[in-house]
Amino acid sequence: MTETRLGQATNFDSWKHAYAKRAENLAVSEVRALFSVVSRPEVVSLAGGMPDVSAMDNDAIRSAFDSLMSSRPQYALQYGGGQGDLRLREQICQIMELDGVHGSVEDVMITTGSQHALELISDLFLDQGDVVLVESPSYVGAVGIFRHKEAHIEHVFTDHDGLSPDALEEAVERLKADGKRIKLLYVVPNFANPSGVTLSEERRQRVLQICRDHGILIVEDNPYGLLYFEDQPPKALRAFDGDGVVYLGSFSKILSPGLRVGYVLAPPAIREKLVLANESAILSPATFAQMLVSEYLATCDWQKQVADYRNLYRTKRDAALEAVRQYLPSLHTTEPAGGFFLWLTLPEGLNSKEMLPLAVTELVAYTPGTAFFGDGRGHENIRICFSHPTAENVKVGIHRLANVIDRQIELLETFGSSK
Ligand code: PMP
Known about the structure:
Blueprint: E1 2-5, E2 8-11, H1 30-38, E3 44-45, H2 58-71, H3 73-76, H4 86-97, E4 108-111, H5 113-125, E5 131-135, H6 140-148, E6 152-156, E7 158-159, E8 162-163, H7 165-177, E9 182-187, H8 201-214, E10 217-221, E11 245-250, E12 262-265, H9 268-282, H10 287-299, H11 302-327, E13 332-333, E14 341-345, H12 352-361, E15 364-365, E16 367-368, E17 381-385, H13 391-415
The protein binds 4'-deoxy-4'-aminopyridoxal-5'-phosphate.
C-alpha cells in the first residue's frame, strides 16, 4: 500500500518481511477504527467506551496537582520503583476492601491502566495455542491481546447472570480431552464490557471451584465495580481465593483514563514475576501520574465523585433503556445495573457490521458485536455505550439507530439481504 506524504511515496509494506510472526495478529480494533468518524461533532457516538470526564471535579485535580508540586516534586518528577508508589498501593488496598478484597500492599502492583496488566499477564502465561476461556462476548482489548499472543480463545456461554458454570465445565472437559492446555479464565464479573451483565453470587462460587479443580488461573478484571446504579455487586472472586485469582482494577472509569493508572493484586506466587515483567517493559509506572492519583485520593472527596458518577450514569442508562423500549421495542437488550454498556440483539438476518456505514451516514455510531468475539461471531449484536454522550444525545442516537434498523429490515424484506 502506498500513500503520498509531503510529496514522497510511502510504502507501508516495506518492512513487512521483517515483522515477527505474531505481528500478523495485530489488527486495528473495530473500536479504534471508528474513532476518526466518531469525533465528528454531528455524529452521536454510542461506540467508544469512554467515561464522561466533563463530570469530573477539575478543581479537585488542580488542587491535588498544586499540593503534589509544592510538597514532593523531586519524587514526582523522578523514576520510581517497578512495583509502584507505596502510598498509592496502600490506598488501593482500601479501595479493594469496598469490593470485599483484603489484599496486602506487597501483592499490589501499579500498571499503565489495566490494559497493561492484561498484556503483562498474557505475556507471562500464554504460549502459542494455550487456551484462554472468556465470556461470550468478551472485552475487545483483552481479545486483542490474547490473539496477539496466538492463544486459542474459547468463548463460554454467558447469559443475564454472567458466565455459565455448566458451560464452563463442559468447555474445560472438552478442551482437556482434546489435549489442549488451558491457562486462564478471563472474566469481567461486574457490569461487563460489552454485555453489561453481572456474574451472580452463586455462579461466582461455582466458577471458583471449577477453576481450582482444574488448575486454571482466573483473571478478574473489575474496572466498573464501583459504578453500580442500585445494589452493590456481589463480592469479588478474589475475596474468596487469594492464590487462584489475579485481580485487576483501574482509575480510568472513576477518575480519568488520561492518567493511565491501573493496578493488579497478584497471588503472592506470581507477584515477583509480574514486577519483573513490569520493570522489563517500562522500568517503572509513571511516577507523576501515580502520585497525582494518590494525592487526589488523600486530599479530595473521591467517594463523592464516584457517587456523582453513579448518579450520572444511572440517568444515562435510564435514558438508553427508555429509548430502546420506545424506538426498538422488539429488540432484546441487556439491562445493566451499573457500568457503561447495553448489548442489543438485532432481528434475524441483520448484520451489525454491514449496517455500520449506513448508521454513520445517519449520524450515529456504535460498535458491532463482532469486535467482542475471537471467532467471528457477534454479527447480530450491537454494543451501545451510554456513558459519554449526554442523556439527550443517547436518546437521539438510539432513535437514529432505530431508523437505520427499520431501513435495513425493509431492504431485507425487499431484496433478501441486509446489504
Ligand atoms: N478492562 C475492561 C473490561 C475495560 O472495559 C477497559 C477499558 N475499556 C480496560 C480493561 C482497560 O482500561 P484501562 O487500561 O484504561 O485501565
